[in-house]
Amino acid sequence: MDKFKEIRPIVLGMVKKDNKILVSKGYDNVKNEIFYRSIGGGIEFLENSKDALKREFKEELNIEINVGEFLGISENIFTYNGKNAHELILFYNVDIKDEDYKEKYHIIDDNCETDAVWIDTKRFINKELKIYPEQVFKYLG
Asked: Could you tell me the pTM of the whole model?
């Protein structure tokens, strides 16, 4: 699947702890913009969205998760690094085990390295930091 030519189904996990949310850091070279996004990724053909979310957390953070309540679905049409993209996003609450809790996780995904960190949700709500997709604001509370 070419994620810049087709509608891509993805799943994102909302991991919250003490008014903070676990997000990965991203960078758009064209916009020269640092942004954050919840952990997750593409749903493969014939893969259940909950299983996809578990797989993504295992691949990216090397942890097992408990997938909680389904929060909703949204459509996201955006531009990333100068390319148009279109996603249908399923959002779930996610819990991680205490023994898997870290202040920071190192992620290697699609030949790209970044970190996942806990950030106070107020920093996104106050527009101090950018989080995508914008529909995530419905689930930050």
From this structure: 0.92
- pLDDT score for 89: 97
Q: How far apart are CA 117 and CA 112, in angstroms?
A: 16
CATH assignment at residue 37:
3.90.79.10
Task: For residue 2, tell me if it sits in a domain.
Answer: no
pLDDT in tens, 88-141: 999 999 999 989 999 999 987 767 789 999 999 999 999 999 999 989 999 886
Domain that holds residue 19: 7-139
Confidence at residue 1, expressed as pLDDT on a 0 to 100 scale: 58
Report which of 80, 70, 97 is spatially closest to residue 13, judged by C-alpha positions.
Answer: 70
- Determine, yes or no, domain membership for 110: yes
Cis before 9 (ω within 30): no
Of all helices (H) and strands (E), which one includes residue 128?
none
Closest of 127, 98, 129, 99 to residue 23, by C-alpha: 129
43 in a domain, yes or no? yes
Residue 115 lies in a domain: yes
Residue 108 is predicted with a pLDDT of: 78
Number of Cβ within a 10 Å radius of residue 32: 7
DSSP 8-state secondary structure symbol assigned to residue 122:
H
